[in-house]
Each structure stands twice: as C-alpha cells, then as structure tokens.
Amino acid sequence: MRLDPAAAVPPAAERRVQQMTVHGTELSDEFHWMRAANWQEALRDPAVLPADIRAHLLAENAYSDAVLAPVKPLIEAMVGEMRGRIKEDDASVPSPDGPWEYFESYREGGQHPLVSRRPRGGGADQIMLDGDALAEGRPFFDLGGAVHSPDHRLLAWSHDDKGSEFFTLKVRDLAAGEDLADELAETGGDAVWSSDASRLFYIRLDDNHRPLKIFRHALGTPQAADALVFEETDTTVFVGMGETTAGGLAIISGAQSDSTETWVLDLADASARPRLILPRADDVKSYPDYHPGWQGRPTLFIRTNDEAEDYRIVAAPLADPVKANWTEIVPHRPGVLVLSATVLRDWLVRLERENALPRIVIRNLTSGEEHAIAFDEEAYSLGVISGYEFDTDTLRFVYSSMTTPNETWDYDMRARTRTLRKRQEVPSGHDPEAYVTRRLMAPAPDGETVPVSLVYAKGTPLDGTAPVLLYGYGSYGHSLPASFSTARLSLVDRGFVYAIAHVRGGMEKGYRWYRTGKREYKVNTFSDFIAAAEHLIAKGFTAKGRIVAQGGSAGGMLMGAVANMRPELFAGILAEVPFVDVINTMLDDTLPLTPPEWREWGNPIADAEAFRRMLAYSPYDNVAAQAYPPILALGGVSDPRVTYWEPAKWAARLRAAKTDANPVLLVTNMDAGHGGAAGRFDRLAEVARSYAFAVAVTGAPEKLA
Prior knowledge:
19% helix, 7-stranded antiparallel β-sheet
C-alpha cells in the first residue's frame, strides 16, 4: 500500500511577495498573505477566517485526502486496533480529600471524561461534570480545569469550545447539580479558591492570548466587577498560579524560560495583595512549596538552580525568605537533576533524574533520613501524583516503560511498603514479554552521547531492514519519557522499531543538556537527532531511507530543520503543528508566544547576531531546491501556539522549491487548535493517519504481525 501523489493536483498557492529588510538582510516572503489580518478574532471564531485563506486550507485538505485515499482502510484498521486496546469504561484511582474521594472516569463509548466523587470509604458515585453531555452538539470541546472548593460544596470548572485555549470558567453547586450564574470569559482555565469559598482567583488572557493578569471574583457578581489583584507588565513573562498542598496560600509565579519571580497570596484574607518573596535574578529559577509549621514556623521549601545548575532544595522562613536565611536541605550534585519537590507534613518527596533514568527520593523532615524508589528496566518512566492532602504518609506514583503498561502505586512512606492500586488494562491483550525495550547512546559530532530509547517486538529482524519511527522534541527543557503507549503498538506489531531521541534542548541529562540545546547552541538539537538516526543505521536496526521522523510544535521545527539538512536519511517526515516559520514569528511581537520565546531562541529584533543565527536554521527560510522525502504536516485553525499559517506557508514553499515527485501533504483541523481533536476516539483517528503515513512511505506490512 502506497500513497497516490497522482490522485489529484496539489494546490498552487498564489504568490504575493512581501519584502522587508532586517539588520541589513532582505527577506522575501511570497506566502505572507496566509497570515490573516484578523487572526486574533479567528482564534475566538474560526468562521471569520478570510475566504481566500479558508479556500486554500480546504483545497489542501482535499488534496491530502486524495493522496491518502489508498491508506484509508489502514487508518480505519489502526483506529480499530487502538480502540481495542483502550478500556472504554476506565477510571482513575480516587484521590482522597477529607470526606470525599475525587476521580475521573469514562463511560463505554464516551469521548470525554466524567468528573466524579464518592464518599471516602465507600458509597455511591456522584457525577459532578458529564463531559459527553457538555460536549454534545459542539464540533470541538475540551474540558479544562475542575477544582472543588475547600468546603466541598462547589466546583470551579472550565471549558474551551474552539481549540483556541480561551477557557470559560463556571461554578457548579454540587448539591443542586447546576451551575451558578457566574461565568468568567477568556481565562487560562484554572482557578484557586479563597479559604472560605466565597471568591475565586483566576488568570485572564489578554487580546494576544498572554497570561499577565490575575483577578479576584466574588461569587454572585458580574465579571466586570472583578478586582485586579496582580498584573505583570513584561510581555516576556508568563504568569501562573496554584494553591499549595498545605492550603491557605497561593503561589504566583512570573516565569521566563531562564528565570522566575515568585509571590505569595493569603487565601484567608479577603483584601490580601500578593507579596513578593523571591525576586527575579538572571538565569535563576526557583519553585517554592509551603509547610505551615516546620520546626515551629511557616517555611518555604525551595527547589532552585541558584548556584546549582541541576537544582538543590533549601528551606527558608516564609516571613523573610531572602537568600541569607536559606538552609540547605538537599545539596546540588552535578548530573543529578532535581525535577520536582513535594512537601507533606512529615515528608519531603523529590523526583530526580540521573543518566536519563528517574527515581523518587523520600526524606523524613524530622530525622533527615532518606530512601529511594527506583526500578530495574533499561529505560522507564516514573511520575509523582500530587494528592489533595497534606497530612498523609501515602505517596502515589505511576510507573511504566515502553513495554510495561502504566501502574499506579500507593507507597507507605513510613512502613516503606507499596500497594498496587491499578494496572492499565489492554482489553485486546498485551504481553510485555513479547517486546524488547532498549537504551542506546548515540555519539554526537562534538563527542556528547545522545540517549535513544527503543521498543520493538521480539523477532523483529535487526539486520538493517526494519523501518523506524524516530521521535524527537528538544526544546524548553522538556524531557521525553520512556513510557508506555498502546497506540504505538500498531507500528511495532507491523515490524517497526519505535525510537525516541532524547536530544539536547531537553533535560534528560541534566540542565546542561537543556542549556546546550537553546539559543546559540540550538543546532545541537538538530545534529543530535541526525546522530541518533545514523547510530540506528550503524547498529543495524535500520537503513538510510527507512526512517520516518516525527515531532510536533517545537519538535516540528526539528523536523523542518533535519528535512533541510539530511533529507536522504528519511523515508518520510511527520511534522505536527510545526514551528517552522521561526524568523517571521520571532520578528512579530504581537503573536502570543513571541516575546516569551525570545529567552529560548533569541530576539532577532534587537540582536543582529541572534537574527543571523536563527535565519541559518529556520526551516521555512532554508527550504532548498533539493529532493525531500514525503512530508505530512498538520495544523489547527484556532491554534494560539503555532499559528495555522506556519505549516501552510511551509508546505507551499516546499512544493514550489523541491526537485522530486514526493508529496507534501498539509492537513488543517478547521475546528481545533494546538492539541488536535479533544475527544479520545477522535484523537485516535489523527494518530492512525500519521502512523498509516509511516507504513505507506516505508512499505511496511499493512497487516499486524
């Protein structure tokens, strides 16, 4: 089964050249017109997209449908396989909070979650939110945050029905099962309750989709009467807010990619204003958690990279947390990255990573004694689930590997015993022993070694003939977990080796791994991915032209870069909501993410050197007259993160420049944004389309092994 490039004529995008000069360099963009002048309005209502742009995107969709027509049966088969591996009436392990246990579940055939609770210790379930009912009749629906009030009477919940990530926040009376009149528009989706449950604190997004203001809403009053309690004037900062596990205090953060500033807000004081506790310092990121009475006084436990690149943990009095008052609790150890720290009444729990493998370390806050939870597989994923309760000896964590389904454990930190609460069910069957998971270290051009996580079926020939799907990201310090996925089995069971390249720009090997994959070192991300591909070839897993590269968002930029640099390595490129128009986007300070992103990539407006460096790798600006492999690019009309015109312009320029007959396909979701379809089964169809593309371009078997 192959694609059919001759099934239709690809759309010929009109060329309307726009030129500008930046730092003495002339830039020419023949497809700039695809950026709608009313893009902000289109985020809120995709129907107002200009007619010529909409017509072009629909023509691209029709062309892609025609070329992909031969693989439609495979897509349908894969959706069936993927759905068969999902326990449709699944439920999370309930999380206790006082008299109740809170959880999410799905009904058989349901697309959206049910947010529920039951009396602690047993009793009838109470459905607080029915996602399926709320989504009925809407082409897109995403259930956002849902947080119950301290007295358990009310539920603040949010939804997005455009995919634009402008969330509407509502309040539900849980006894009545009905929403109050309160309706807060254009929020970030989350809320924090005051201690007496009479007020809500929330972040409102501005016209450019930036989270810069926090408001206080008194229940029963109009949104127009809400009080502004915090405002950030620096548009390079993202404001965040959350309540501490101990309660009574909210933490407000102003985050840049390489620094933070932190305030606290007393949730018991109706007139309280945020108090600055950790001022901003260049290249310093600090994340506090709160203990109301450690050693007899309110204390902050702060995870910080101040004089500690891979982070350390210090304690400081809440009343005066200046650096001179810090007490070191967990010292810095180079190469051991402290990923998170959770404070409970008697315990400090940290998740850390060394040599790309995570472990949980538990510290008794009275004795200082520590012990660790770790596992033996070559590559695995480990995560801590923060509960609602501060006074507890129970820690919940989730373990999986690329062969082992998710396991949810409750760990008694005092007795040091663990109880399995849930093992992910795969209704159609899954035998972990039928698969192999590996961790390779690929040599990079500068002598570094790049971790590569693999999974493949036992019996897969490792003689250079197997197809590979190689996934990468490499930005913002985000690390890719070597976790379990039921969907990818549809590739692995067809003879694929599924590989994850843990390239620089993530933090798999510590903060240094991130620092040496950003700004002036960004090209390391691309060369690391290419090194991973070449190592898989050298070790006999696959061959040149048998690898499909996949990445999304900033990982889509990685896809565009490696397609330009080494197109012959790849059988195909899967670029999902790809950030490929780097220069034009970073020169446009009206776009939602541009000012905050300057810390990650550089500011090409103010810095001529950063401009030239970014221009040298920007995928859109480096499309060349050369042969490219088949490419499938995905976008969303209401995407506020990577705007729809980036993949649209890239596809048009690729098609105009390349010298081969391979198809360039662009599929734009006209009803969704950055995350694609919100329904769990609708999302399977998108994954199956990408995987069917990978099967088609490599000539892998259509049928399961």
